[in-house]
Amino acid sequence: MNSGLSLKRLLRVSVAAGAAGALALGGLTACSSDDNSSDSAGNPAGKTTELPSNPATGDPIKIGFIASEGGAVQLPMLRTSGEAAARYLNENGGGIGGHKVELVVCKQSEEPASATKCANELVEKKVAAVVAPLSSQGAVMLPIITGAKIPYIAQAPVSRAEFATPGAYMLSGGTIAVLAGQAKTAAQSGIKKFTVLIGDSGDAATSVKAMATPIFQQAGVELKVVVVPVASADPTPEITAGLADKPGAVTVLGDTRMCVSAMKVLQSVAPDVKKYLIASCLDKPVWEAIGGHDKLIGAKAFTTVNLTSDDPSVTLYRSIMAKYAPDDDPQGLGYLGYQVVMSLGEIGKDIKGVTAADLRTALTTATDVPLPAAPGLTFTCNGKAMPMLPPLCSNSIIVSDVAADGKFENSTVIKN
Known about the structure:
The chain has two domains: 4-17 and 175-303 and 402-415, 3-Layer(aba) Sandwich (Rossmann fold); 32-172 and 310-382, Rossmann fold (3-Layer(aba) Sandwich), CATH 3.40.50. Helices cover 39% and strands 19% of the residues. By secondary structure, the protein is of the alpha/beta class. The N and C termini lie close together (6 Å).
């Protein structure tokens, strides 16, 4: 994909990614489940391995961890998986360049007041970096954290600020990478028409259309964005009308509730259309609501993780979770917290000290760093992965076929 024109256009409309990212955050919130069993029916945990013994002995390096826990937002698995990764680094993985990880956790409720409090608290505690696996409050927290010259690291961008603020480091390309990967996959598959189903919350539909249109145009695929009323008990009329031109593939950008309602309609009115699905449409509540994993067989998954793989990095993830977070579902959302903490161990192998400046140097000089539990994905945070959007450390996405029992097969990495 030629990035020049698209990225210039994307920079002007990067708020779109914030809108879509906020929807994804809502999906993750809705996905939370009381069933944390790692061997849920049809969703086997996979094999594990014995962990090495390589304890960290150097001076501690303080890492601030902003957890999304409070009020209506309860994602404790992001924190517990991050804590599990820190324990592994300290007890088994040699820390961050030999330094022990001192995780300083602050919980916020995904609203400005608590997010501001956390940002200020972590600055006061002089952390060397702040990690926020996924948050809608980047625009609030970033000016405080980066203003103190502390690196801010997230798994994926949600707010516009995370796409453009110097000192922010996004380990994945977020919505941009997803849409670019979907466009390229559609073109390679000979698909001429592609439909995006998106909820009517705020300006999300308008923003995503502005962002996605140049991407799909350059891929030679006709794009249609269909707005679905999220409050509707039955969106069949809107989705049916939106599919009247018989697209070759369709994606749903929304939270779990929207994924459930849209997937039910698609099963009824367009069962044979190819489905390109993001994480919120592949989670347990969705396949349970639509009648089981077999209803997703043949879909394409666009993700920054592959939790059903037997790749050594994924086996290590399952092993760490089994030892240090045994009550969490290793197939759930914990990978978001795990990836941001474990990535610090990867980039900090040759770190010289424990200050924010030391960690920033490690971030900006490490290249093609493997993203933990994401076979084939790497990140480079020197501003060159997407030059028009320097905080993005990757422009790639994993594309997989969804097979029986929700397993991913034929996984490939698309670089955009």
